[in-house]
Here is the input.
Amino acid sequence: MWVSLVAKIVIIVGMNGVICDLESVNWLRGTSTDLTKALQFLREYDTEASEMCFRVNTAQWQYSTNMTDLLKRKMVEEQTLRAKFDKLTWKRAVVFDWTRISDPVARRQLKMLTTNTRASLSDEKYNEIYHLISEMKDIYATTRTCAYAPGIHDNEVTYCDLGLEDIQTIMAKSKDHKELAHTWREWHDKIGPPLKNKYMRYADLANQAARLNGFLDAGEEMRFMYEDPDFENELAQTFHKLQPLYKELLTYVRRKLIEQYGDRVVRPEGPLPAHILGNLWAQDWTNIADIVLPYPKFADMDVTVEILRQGFTPLRMFQMAEEFFTSMGLKPMPPEFWRHSMIERPNGRKVQCTASAWDFCNNIDFRIKQCTEMNMKNLIMIHHEMAHIEYYLYYSDEPYLFRDGANPGFHEGVANAIVLSVFNLKHLWRVGLFNTNTDNYELNINFLMLMALKKVAYAPFAYLLEQWRYDLFESGVTRMNADWWDLRLRYQGVVPPATRSDAHFDAAAKRHVPADVPYARYYVALLLEFQVFKVACQAAGQTGPLHGCDLYRSREAGRVLMDIMRSGKSKHWRQVIRSMTRGETDRISADAMLEYFDPLLVWLRNQNRDEKVVGWTTFKEDKALFQPLIYGGSGVPTAKLACIFVVVLVFIQFVQ
Ligand SMILES: *[C@@H]1O[C@H](CO)[C@@H](O)[C@H](O)[C@H]1NC(C)=O
Ligand SMILES: [Zn+2]
Here is the structure.
């Protein structure tokens, strides 16, 4: 038959509390190498998948721009149909042995269809994981928490209907550390426990699917998306290179936070408490800019006043963004874009306002959905979303499976490279929105600080989230909360504002975890953003500091971007990097990001010169916040021993 069963022996430690389990794995892969049949299948798939994508996206669009129960039901119906279609597709694709298909394009497509899918699971389990994920997303979306109410006693009523958006606002705006700690705890205490058992089952099923696809666990399968076994090392190296900059930033920010909150809230030389950084996940510190900005006198970099004064409308902001792209020789937005996009919050119906860019997979229909408000943030966001549309337009002639970024970080990386050229004092000055002399040193340091609070502060979080998930898929769920905080302390230098235990599940506070959305892409995108920006700036012939580079009106820069976008996912991303750097490298690197922030690094080193500790020292009390007594009779060491014993026994059997 077409399925060859490759038996493997794997040892699972700790998953679902199982001490040690020996299991033979059936690796599903077909034997057919018939190229004609493969090409025939792929042609049919291409048409059907594009149609399916059109239907699902249309239903999703209708619901997001008109949130009624009826439209939600229709959307769920289409999504369920797609899940069935994916399952069917997998069955047809796995007949072939992609490793032995001679045509490289067909081989690449078949590989994509038979890896990174849960369709290898039985129908029953496939449905189960699909429903588990939607249940977890629902819980995440509907969790409510109670407001901070000092002085209220147990039997009095407090307001308990705060959703995630309200919480984010409080985390961003409040400077009352007790309110912040309360809000942080409410969310983490309420979101994790109801998700924990579901997530454990989900991890188990994801691993089963991965093993059927020929991987050791679901983490290995996720890494396989990057098509390079050395990729993890490459990322670890970039992380290592960014550490000194991150530590300087943290050290300076810590001093400012101590000035604000006192050394009873923030320990000098210690890690930062996660609740006072202006963000629920401590991943973006922009909201504490008012506390840490180096030169308050030059604080005003927001051009909103000018946008209002010049009487902009949402349409004019969109036209301005389009002109940015056409000035580089890139494509204008097609007529359908202008006809169908939603660029303002409509009256009389409920809509989902998160800004997003849509590809309807029919080579005609591309749209943005955004409830544009008249401010600088929205102007920048429009440029970002429109960059995604440019990407869609340039690869629209590729087969369905190649209509994507070269690797999962490319789309976001390119869109943010554009933003680096737009949220940029020189650019804002050139387009008549910023009137101050942009050569001022203090102004530039302020600007770089603001960028660092967003980008440099984000790096360790973006990196560690997936490390945690990889560890979990590999070694099981027994220590999942303590592991989460171990990583956050080690990489990010943050600690929770309250004691955590096994009953908590704090990683679930970030939507991407329960919603099953990969995260490594955001770290890759962060590096690519600067890397792409740098090569485009070089092509544009820009000299001077990188943070002052503006790509506006440079056709040469446009060509660099066009080449990246046009190949979509049809080529290995290493080839794309090699060609964009004109053969210089094919690696993801932190160098461009470090170059961008170099003036700030010099400034920070000077500011921190009297600090005893640049970075943070970890005390026992820090770890005690989240580490249960590991050796207090939990039996973990014994379980490990038992497992090793079984493995040795099996080994002896084999030898005999
Ligand atoms: C919103 O959806 C409802 C159906 O649920 C429909 O009757 C209504 O016309 C839609 N509104 C708009 C503006 O499309
Ligand atoms: Zn984006």
